[in-house]
Amino acid sequence: MGKEIRQYKETIIEIFNKIEAEEENIKKAAELMADAIMRDELIHVIGTGGHSCMAAEELLWRAGGLAPINSILDAGINLVHGAKRSNIIERMEGYVKGVFDAYKIGQKPGEVIIIVNAYGINSMTIDAALEAKKRGMKIIAVTGREFGDKVPAGAASRHSSNKNLYELADVWVNCHLPYGDAVVEIEGLEQRVAPTSTFCNAFAVNCLVIETVRLLAERGVTPPVWTSANVPGGDAANKKWEEKYGPRVKHL
User: Fold this and answer.
1) DSSP track, 190-244
2) Sheet holding 112-116: strands in order across?
3) Which has the closest alpha carbon to 145: 177, 192, 116?
4) Mean of all residue pLDDT scores within the chain
5) Which end of the chain is more exposed for a tag (fewer CB within 10 A), N or C?
6) Do residues 32 and 138 lie in contact, with contact meaning Cβ atoms separated by under 8 Å?
7) Virtual torsion, Cα 86, 89, 90, 91, nearest 10 deg
8) Would you kindly state where each structural domain of the chain is located, as residue ranges?
9) pTM above the 0.85 mark?
C-alpha cells in the first residue's frame, strides 16, 4: 500500500477519534431522539445539498438503523439529477421552506430534525436551520466549523446572514471535517485528493443511532431497529416496523 493511501486511512481514523470524543453532545442528541421515539414521533433528517444527501440516505431503511427515520430526499439537491444543479440549488435562499412543506414536517413544536452538512455554511443549510426554528423544532446539527470559521462573509457558498450551522443548533455534533475536505497530497499536484466529508457525516450519524438505541434499551423500551432484508427472517422481522412507520415515512 502506498504512503498516500496509508495517510488517507490514518487521517480518517484520526477524524473518527475526534468524533468519538464528542461524547457529551452525542448523548444530548440521543436523548432528544429517544424522547421523540417514545412520543411515537418521527426523526427527520436532511443532508442539505450535494454529497451530504448521502447522510440522509444512510439512515433510511438501513440494517441496524432506526425505523422511525423520515429522510428528506429532495430531488433538487440530489446529485442524481445533476451535480451542478444541486450546487446551484443549495445556494438558493428560500428553497427549503417548500421542501419542509412538501414533507409535512414541523407541524407541531418539539419535532426533532437532524441537519447534516459538514461545511455548514451554504444557503439551504442555514435556511433549513432557520425554518426549523420557526416551526419550533429541535435541531441536531452534524457539521464542522472549519469552513464556517474560514470562508469569508459574502462568499458565494455562504448564506446572506453569514450564520454557521453549528451556531443555530440545539445540539451540535462536530464532525471535524478538515478545511478543504480532501486531505492527501500527491507530489507535483497542488490540489489535494481523497475527500473526507462522507466518512465524517456517516460515522457521526451512526454514533447518534448507537447511543439512541442504547438509551432506549436502558429505559426498557424495545428499540425500533431494522434487520437486514438480505438475511433469512429479515422480511418477517421488519414487517411490524413497516406497518407502523410505512404510512408516515415518505420514502419507506
Assistant:
1) SS-B---HHHHHHHHHHHHHHHHHHHHHHTT----BPPPTTSTTHHHHHHHHHHH
2) 69-72, 43-47, 112-116, 138-143, 171-174
3) 177
4) 96
5) N
6) yes
7) 130
8) 3-245
9) yes
Residue 223 CB burial class (10 angstroms; 0-12, 13-18, ≥19): middle
Across the range 84-94, mean pLDDT stands at 94
- Count the residues in the chain: 252
pLDDT band of 83, cuts 50, 70, 90: very high
Under CATH, domain 3-245 is a member of which superfamily?
Glucose-6-phosphate isomerase like protein; domain 1 (3.40.50.10490)
The reported pLDDT for the residue numbered 63 is 97
Q: Which three cell numbers stand for residue 243?
A: 406497518
Under DSSP, the state recorded for 22 is: -
Neighbours of 206 (CB within 10 A): 16
Sign (positive or negative) of CA dihedral 92, 99, 213, 231: negative
Bridge partners of residue 193, in order along the sequence: 184
The answer, yes or no, to whether residue 133 has pLDDT greater than 90, is yes
